[in-house]
Amino acid sequence: MRPSGRDLSEMRAVSIDTDVTKHAEGSCLIKIGDTHVLCTASLEERVPPFIKGSGLGWVTAEYGMLPRSTSSRMRREAAAGKQGGRTVEIQRLIGRSLRAGVDRVALGERQITVDCDVLQADGGTRCAAITGGWVALRLAVNKLMKAGDVLSDPLLSPVAAVSCGIYAGQPVLDLDYPEDSAAGVDGNFVMRGDGRLIEVQMSAEGAAFSREELDTLMGLADLGVQNLVAVQKAAVA
Question: Which residues are annotated as a binding site?
Fold first, then answer.
């Protein structure tokens, strides 16, 4: 029995509310169970120096957790004077995941920055940030298309992510914090809406896992991502 009482292949409740901030070109609040992430997308008519003049666009991301997004207060990273290694790793993951669903030629020489701020954490914050980040990106690109600033849709496919793992000896979908903190195997799966893989992060937190167990977790991840993609499409319809 999972701590939440969910079936092994059952996700937490998922909701995405769009246009939740006034100024960002695209924004949403994604809730996956008790994990809540605010995602905003900002358009800029410039690109980083390393691709300037190439005609290619760029999508990047920043990620952060509010001090009381967890059970005890965390110190703001700005107060510490630098980002932690976990933060840097996650925001790089978000950025490259979202770029995998973008035709950067069609986007043109401009940058979209997706900011993901964790309001409340209960496991799977990076997956929620990627899933909500795509919705914010979609809304920002819609504004570009409506204004005629791009000739064709630069978004190739939705991008979503979900966690899977082995908890109490059983493969489970969408780990919450009690499961994540006690999982023998923990993984994050980033996929496009067409089923193509973008990134898989798997690690044995306890015993090593078999190829058969990996295949089972892949099947659960595919099920979860298709569920998330359906919610994404409904949110931006």
Answer: 86, 124-126
Rounded Cα–Cα distance for residues 34 and 179 (Å): 13
**What pairing do the DSSP bridges indicate for beta strands 111-120 and 35-44?**
antiparallel
Binding residues for phosphate: 86, 124-126
Separation between Cα atoms, residue 17 and residue 13, nearest integer Å: 13
Residue 43, helix vs strand vs coil = strand
The answer on pLDDT for 192 being more than 90 is yes
* Its pTM surpasses 0.85: yes
CB distance 163 to 49 below 8 Å: no
pLDDT tens per residue, range 17-57? 999 999 999 999 999 999 999 999 999 999 999 999 999 99
C-alpha 214: how far from its chain's center?
A: 21
The span from the first CA to the last CA of the chain, in angstroms, equals 36
Longest CA–CA separation in the chain, Å: 56
